[in-house]
Amino acid sequence: MAHPAGSPARQPAGKGGATALTSRDNRWLKRFRAALSGERDDNGFVGVEGVRLVEAALGSSLPLDALLVSESGTRHLPRIRAVLPSGVRLFRTSDKLFAGVADTQAPQGIAALVQPRQAAVEDLLGGIALVAVLVGVQDPGNVGTIVRAAEAFGATGAATCPADRIGTADPFAPKALRASAGSALRLPIVRGISATVLLAQLRISRVTVYAAVAVGAPSASEFAKGASGAGSPSSPPWGIDWKSPSAILIGNEGSGLPAELVRAADARVFIPQAPALAPVGIESLNAAIAASTLLYEAMRQRETAGQK
């Protein structure tokens, strides 16, 4: 495997073919520390921590540059070595030094540097497209959960877009990666694309775009007229034909989708809720719960149609 330009030089191998790192100022430990805190290096490598995510990275066929294990983490090596590609640097360090680079409070003692794939919009549209579009979703846990649900319920890909000046959290940041349980390493994801540009490309590919709105959101007639979605219908999830190519717009946790994107969508979808038990009522559903509900209904319809 070719290593990225400018990578630190290989050090002499230690016990079990692994190089021992004994100083917190070692440049490899610094690189792991930066990656596990959410930084990307010049070659796009990110850090994954924990047995589950490292195994997901190994099973994703993505480029791996290095593996780091602590003294206690060496117990995971037998199962990891069986699928570890040749040429991947293997480093050992103490539990104390590993804790200093880890992003979790109770580290499992194993981490890797992996290079996520760079997806294009075309990569999201395989088969009968089902695309989760995150617009200004700021919480990394929500982002990771939506990506996990997208993979679990058969979505063909996901995209993250800014909403006005509000960006969507990076799906490859540590918390989002953990929340996705590795799905972000497998599902095609287009990061940081303009929602306007994305919608134009989806329309060219004849993908129907649905805007997820809260119960009680302003009706289409209340929006300024003239946009294609100004008179778009609003339906519960089961009132939509998800068997055709579809994309779901999921908005910011607090403010939802920008009005112009709701207008631009082909239709709106809302999730009915039970009557409130208290005068104050309940807030709209969490972004991740709403996305999961809609994606599940899409999968249910598609599987039911396939059984006929």
What would you say about this model in short?
The protein has 308 residues and is of the alpha/beta class. The protein has helices at residues 27-36, 51-59, 77-81, 95-101, 140-152, 174-180, 195-204, 259-264, 287-307, and strands spanning 19-20, 46-49, 64-70, 89-93, 110-114, 130-135, 157-161, 189-190, 208-212, 234-235, 246-250, 267-269.
* Major β-sheet profile: 7 strands, parallel
The largest beta-sheet arranges its strands as: 8-7-6-11-9-12-10
**Multimeric state:** single chain
CATH architecture of the largest domain: 3-Layer(aba) Sandwich
Strand content: 15-25%
Task: State the helicity in percent bands.
Answer: 25-40%
CATH topological fold name of the largest domain: Alpha/beta knot
How many domains is the backbone divided into?
A: 2
Topology:
Blueprint (H helix, E strand, L loop, with lengths): L18 E2 L6 H10 L9 E4 L1 H9 L4 E7 L6 H5 L7 E5 L1 H7 L8 E5 L15 E6 L4 H13 L4 E5 L12 H7 L8 E2 L4 H10 L3 E5 L21 E2 L10 E5 L8 H6 L2 E3 L17 H21 L1
Parallel strand pairs: 1-4, 3-4, 6-7, 6-11, 7-8, 9-11, 9-12, 10-12
Antiparallel strand pairs: 2-5, 3-5
Helix pairs in contact: 1-4, 5-6, 5-9
